[in-house]
From TrEMBL:
Protein name: RBR-type E3 ubiquitin transferase
Keywords on record: Metal-binding, Repeat, Transferase, Ubl conjugation pathway, Zinc, Zinc-finger
BP-aspect Gene Ontology terms: protein ubiquitination
Catalysed transformations (reactions): [E2 ubiquitin-conjugating enzyme]-S-ubiquitinyl-L-cysteine + [acceptor protein]-L-lysine = [E2 ubiquitin-conjugating enzyme]-L-cysteine + [acceptor protein]-N(6)-ubiquitinyl-L-lysine
Record-annotated RING-type domain positions: 88-331
Catalytic activity, EC: 2.3.2.31
An example Gene Ontology molecular-function term: zinc ion binding
Pfam families reported in the protein's UniProt record: IBR_1
CDD domains given in the database record: Rcat_RBR (cd20336)
Organism: Mizuhopecten yessoensis (Japanese scallop)
PROSITE patterns from the UniProt entry: TRIAD, ZF_RING_1
Taxonomic superkingdom: Eukaryota
EC supergroup of this enzyme: transferase
């Protein structure tokens, strides 16, 4: 049975606005979806891409389809059939990205360097995906400064890119969306949610515990993340996220809070419940148990039992814990 879905392109062209029936149970990836859309659109699959509106990013063909794709309108970016060069902009300059391996005709940029229009589009889009706010010429200068080769670094405008890469209307809108998103991310108190990639605003600059509004609707049990390390918020404490590598985990108060609020788990075959985070009995550095047995080696080289916190039994030395000892868990530590 076919599922009817709504599709359209980014610029809202009526030519592509429609509802079509697809056998969604046979589609697994974005690539499968694009193949299924070739007929209804009347375009080859390299002429369009599916866009993630919340991220202003194009979907990869290998990405798996999710229910959210079918529950909302599928928005497409339509690419131009070709990227011709105006006669007065043609140049014999070597392509600044692909060098002598580029066989396509090149267009001259405002800085004097040459590049093929398709390569220009791909290069600038990659810059945006890396979070850049400007399009800078990557051509290598002919001279060297103190033995290091420098790049041209000239800044191209979006208008110049539109003309010389022959951007379609959809591509122009896509670039504007991504530029705006990159600009917002670089602003203070705006971060990209690590779960859904939508923008999250921190209302209280002193609170690193942030709840993503978008995730609250789609996955409320996994909607909180740390503003500092951009990882899931693991503790019930409002000041410390529970990720040991995070800056919020520094200081004695944070250390004690993590030891007190960390979750517990059953340790392997010993059937003993122990906190997942301990402080090394020798140097007090926090150690997290992720997998494996109860024997733990700290960075300071101290070897101890993660359950009872006693030193690990050594040959010729009396006392200590070992694998044969079904020890009792030590209580939550106080630093």
């Amino acid at each position: 049975m076919a599922t009817h879905i709504s599709i359209g392109n980014l610029s809202g062209d009526h030519q592509f606005e429609r509802r079509i029936g697809l056998q969604t149970n046979k589609l697994r990836t974005i690539g499968d979806l694009k193949v299924a859309l070739v007929g209804p659109l009347g375009l080859p699959r390299d002429r369009f891409d599916v866009i993630k509106m919340s991220e202003a990013l194009l979907c990869n063909d290998e990405e798996l389809l999710t229910r959210s794709v079918w529950s909302s309108k599928i928005v497409l970016v339509i690419h131009p059939p070709s990227r011709p060069i105006f006669d007065h902009l043609m140049t014999t300059e070597t392509d600044m990205v692909n060098g002598e391996y580029e066989d396509d005709q090149r267009t001259v940029m405002s800085c004097g360097h040459g590049i093929a229009p398709a390569t220009l589009y791909e290069y600038c889009w990659n810059q945006l995906q890396q979070g850049d706010l400007e399009f800078k010429c990557p051509a290598m200068d002919e001279f060297r400064v103190r033995g290091t080769q420098t790049t041209c670094g000239a800044i191209w405008t979006l208008y110049e890119l539109t003309v010389k890469a022959q951007l379609s209307q959809d591509e122009r809108i896509l670039f504007e969306m991504k530029l705006s998103k990159n600009s917002l991310i670089k602003m203070k108190d705006v971060q990209e949610c690590p779960f859904c990639r939508s923008l999250a605003v921190r209302e209280n600059v002193k609170n690193d515990r942030v709840r993503c509004i978008n995730c609250c609707q789609t996955n409320p049990e996994n909607a909180e993340f740390c503003w500092q390390c951009l990882r899931p918020w693991l503790t019930t404490n409002s000041n410390y996220c529970g990720n040991l590598s995070c800056s919020t985990a520094s200081g004695p108060k944070a250390t004690q809070a993590i030891l007190t609020t960390c979750v517990s788990k059953v340790m392997g075959d010993f059937k003993r419940t122990s906190p997942t985070v301990r402080a090394c009995p020798s140097c007090s550095v926090l150690v997290e148990h992720t997998s494996g047995c109860k024997q733990m080696t700290c960075k300071c080289k101290h070897i101890f039992c993660f359950i009872c916190l006693r030193p690990w039994k050594q040959k010729g030395v009396s006392g200590g814990c070992d694998y044969g000892n079904n020890c009792d868990p030590a209580k939550c530590q106080t630093i």
